[in-house]
Amino acid sequence: MVTIGTTHRPATDLGYLLVKHPERVHEFELPTGRAVVCFPEADEARCTAALVLEVDPSGRRDTPDGFTLGRFVNDRPYAASSLLSAALNKAFRTAMGGRSKDRPELAATAIPLDVHLPVLRCRGGADLAHRLFAPLGYEVDATAIALDAEHPDWGDSPYVDLRLSGTLRLADALHHLYVLLPVLDDAKHYWVSTDEVDKLVRAGEGWLAAHPERELIVHRYLAHRRTLSEPALERLAEQDDRVVDDSVDGVAPEDTDEDAPALAVVRREAVLRVLRAAGAQRVLDLGCGPGALLADLMADRRFTEIVGVDIAPRALAVAARRLRLDRPGAIAERDRQRVQLLQSALTYRDARLAGYDAAVLMEVIEHVDEARLPALVRSVFGAARPGTVVVTTPNAEYNANYAGLAAGTMRHADHRFEWTRAEFEGWAAGVAAEHGYTVAIEGVGVADPDRGAPTQLAVFTVAGGTDD
């Protein structure tokens, strides 16, 4: 069983999103049994939908626990597993598509949700449940279920009681469950073929490519078949490759001097100026992409330790080629020792990133879902806590200056948001106050008198100087 609840008002709108009337019981036949959707509570203040899967163990041909009687004696009727994932897809297919005929705007809106799986088969225990759901913005309460409550010395069972809460789109939450239930189960109930790669990539769009446990998720979801998981990982790496055209997909701003340097060059020069003024020597380039800034940092010997960080292996491979790190003897050994490339997700704390003089987030934050920005802020400003943090992001007001950019659209297809100057200033002020930094903001590039500069740059400095 899984329950999904909300306190969005009116809470009964959950029925419109799930395309299920709260006053009815909805039944679905599945190859493995019968699924029932009902609403144990439904009023204006709170609404909860329950999906209950009644599994016929004798109707299944697989043996998840690998013994002869496994077809008849198993946990499938009693614990949430990959079977429940298939039932979610059957019962809530329209909701998973992010569609609602009656509440289309609400379907696209993040709302408070809580999910409860009272008995979840979890190979990896409560810790793995945290690792899989916390980076997606959930508050996670995972409690291991004792093998026998009367004999605690027998240890824990393979099951957890899992509660998730967060503010996100219902479609996103359903996709997370659809993918991660089989991953936690790690015993898929059906034959895994090449079609499953397409299903995984579709269901993981917008979140799986940047997940810190991406490889584990892919390998388990695809039943540890490397012939399938390796192509899937390549496709996800391409999805997460944040190599952005400097001229908004080839569209130049109106009234731009043809001889003026590209905005990307001006932006990097501005970042380097800030780093030099701060006296930084050990620098993190977070979300380094193909390594353009890393190359500029390497060219300046005052930067004695340079670390490029990105979630996408493809981007790191491009950066390694750009810096000639992939060819022995191509650069001096002392230069090679100054540079390190790390794969890491910025929304997940990484002890390797702590203790640096400065960190740069250049055109990175706009590629992160706004709901996940607090996790990035905690990992960078809270856990890593460099003395100086430089953040650049597009100025949404300036977009009107791009002749080929339609009104209301963003500069790149992968941008999750673009902020006005006031929105960026408000966010920066909040981050600085919460984490003990001061902040100064400036524009980068030729400024429009009414709309400001094309790029916004914030310099965060630890209040009172860098920590020892």
Please name the defining characteristics of this protein.
single chain; 468 residues; alpha/beta; c-terminal autoproteolytic domain of nucleoporin nup98; Rossmann fold; 2 domains; seven-stranded antiparallel β-sheet; seven-stranded mixed β-sheet; 22% strand; transferase
Q: How would you summarize this macromolecular structure in one to three sentences?
A:
The chain is built from 15 helices and 14 strands. It is α/β, with parallel strands linked by helices and 468 residues long.
Can you characterise this structure?
Keywords: Magnesium, Metal-binding, Methyltransferase, RNA-binding, RNA-mediated gene silencing, S-adenosyl-L-methionine, Transferase. It comes from Asanoa iriomotensis. This is Small RNA 2'-O-methyltransferase. The protein is an alpha/beta fold and 468 residues long. The chain folds into 2 domains: 2-190, Hen1, N-terminal domain (c-terminal autoproteolytic domain of nucleoporin nup98, 2-Layer Sandwich); 263-462, Rossmann fold (3-Layer(aba) Sandwich), CATH 3.40.50. It is 31% helix and 22% strand. The protein contains 15 helices and 14 strands. It has helices at 13-18, 82-91, 93-96, 104-107, 125-133, 170-185, 195-203, 214-221, 226-239, 263-278, 292-298, 313-322, 333-336, 373-384, 421-435, and strands at residues 2-6, 26-30, 33-42, 47-55, 111-121, 139-146, 156-168, 282-286, 305-310, 339-343, 358-362, 388-394, 437-444, 455-462. The strands form 2 sheets. Strands 2-3-4-1-5-7-6 form a 7-stranded antiparallel β-sheet. The protein has a 7-stranded mixed β-sheet with strand order 10-9-8-11-12-14-13, with helices on both faces. β11 (358-362), α14 and β12 (388-394) form a beta-alpha-beta unit. α7 (195-203) packs parallel to α9. The N and C termini lie far apart (51 Å). 42% of the residues are buried. Mean pLDDT is 87; it is low at 241-247 and 254-259.
